[in-house]
């Protein structure tokens, strides 16, 4: 029924004869993801050799990509005998078809923190008031500022902000947004946690390659696999985990780029996410930085599909003078820091958000 509805809406072609039951939906090749008219990009980061000619950056067409993904999923409607698998594909196709992707609301506190941090000199009082309004973000900020690297836990929110710095606060607010997309089902919890860690690591390495502490490089890395989390959101307790993982692997780049567009991020972020598996010069510098950071992280984490040769090829495509050993060492450094931080935060008592935080906010200190 859902396929007929998509055909009537013009989102799907007339149904073709079914393929064998073992078939799995084909991914949309990166080169086929639709793009709009190109625009010029002329940035040359410190760690990257300048391009000999201006780079032409394609723009991501979210509406056309929604249609492509919906068609790909609708074409599989009759190819799977298990009702839960068909229900999963139907749910995912409906989600992709919605302008909002049926995502949870963007956390108001995180968005407000990001808005305040765009100011040249944000007021600590304003940040305190906003962070205090979100218990989850408040807990993460206090925990991060009370880890093993400090002699004593942060007892006040303004103290925690001063310890962390604005760049780290910005990253924490974005990490909170992405964590809100995790599916809290036992079958997918481990995969979701792994994706969150992988995204943070790739974000750090991409930002390092671009020599930017805050901005598009970190976000592109953090969000490059967010499409997998969105695919998981269409699952339920009856969904076959391996089947959902395969669908996520095949369509995550396109879905992730739609997320970036839905959240109205910089256009180059959506392009980089859409093409991070196989970028070309027309996809821009950020796509190639992300491609290298992703492959380097996968290699260091033991992904057998990515050897040093693949990482070296990505390094050559980017044209960076940074040696391969230095890039792999950076990945390991970030992973070690993540592990140390997770261990410290798990064992460090976090101050409550009661009178101390409210007194700081009221006094403006």
Model description:
A two-stranded antiparallel sheet has the order 1-2. The chain has 17 helices and two strands. The N and C termini lie far apart (61 Å). The model is unreliable at 5-9, 18-25, 37-56 and 353-365 (pLDDT under 50). The chain is globular, with a radius of gyration of 22 Å. The chain is mainly α.
Element layout with pairings:
Layout: H1 2-9, E1 35-41, E2 55-60, H2 62-74, H3 83-97, H4 108-116, H5 124-132, H6 135-144, H7 157-164, H8 166-179, H9 186-210, H10 216-223, H11 226-233, H12 241-262, H13 267-274, H14 285-300, H15 308-318, H16 324-347, H17 355-363
Antiparallel strand pairs: 1-2
């Amino acid at each position: 029924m859902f396929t007929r509805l998509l055909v009537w809406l013009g989102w799907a072609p007339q149904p073709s004869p079914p393929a064998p039951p073992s078939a799995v939906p084909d991914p949309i090749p990166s080169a086929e993801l639709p793009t709009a008219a190109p625009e010029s990009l002329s940035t040359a980061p410190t760690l990257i050799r300048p391009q000999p000619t201006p780079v032409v950056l394609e723009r991501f067409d979210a509406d056309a990509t929604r249609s492509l993904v919906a068609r790909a999923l609708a074409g599989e409607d009759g190819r799977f005998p298990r009702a839960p698998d068909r229900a999963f594909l139907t749910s995912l196709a409906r989600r992709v078809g919605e302008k909002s992707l049926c995502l949870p609301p963007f956390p108001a506190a995180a968005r407000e923190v990001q808005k305040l941090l765009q100011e040249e000199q944000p007021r600590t009082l304003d940040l305190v008031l906003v962070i205090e309004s979100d218990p989850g973000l408040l807990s993460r900020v206090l925990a991060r500022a009370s880890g093993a690297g400090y002699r004593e836990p942060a007892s006040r929110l303004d103290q925690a902000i001063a310890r962390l710095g604005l760049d780290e606060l910005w990253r924490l607010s974005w990490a909170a947004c992405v964590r809100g997309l995790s599916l809290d089902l036992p079958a997918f919890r481990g995969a979701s946690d792994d994706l969150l860690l992988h995204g943070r690591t790739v974000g750090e390495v991409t930002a390092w390659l671009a020599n930017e502490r805050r901005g598009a490089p970190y976000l592109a890395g953090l969000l490059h696999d967010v499409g997998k989390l969105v695919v998981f959101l269409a699952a339920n307790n009856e969904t076959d985990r391996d089947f959902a993982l395969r669908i996520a692997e095949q369509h995550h780049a396109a879905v992730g780029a739609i997320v970036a567009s839905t959240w109205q991020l910089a256009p180059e972020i959506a392009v980089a996410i859409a093409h991070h598996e196989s970028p070309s010069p027309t996809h821009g510098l950020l796509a190639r930085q992300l491609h290298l950071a992703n492959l380097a992280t996968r290699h260091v984490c033991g992904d057998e599909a990515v050897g040093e040769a693949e990482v070296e090829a990505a390094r050559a495509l980017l044209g960076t003078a940074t040696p391969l050993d230095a890039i792999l060492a950076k990945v390991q450094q970030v992973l070690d820091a993540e592990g140390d931080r997770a261990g410290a935060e798990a064992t460090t008592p976090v101050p409550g958000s009661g009178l101390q935080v409210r007194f700081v906010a009221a006094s403006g200190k």
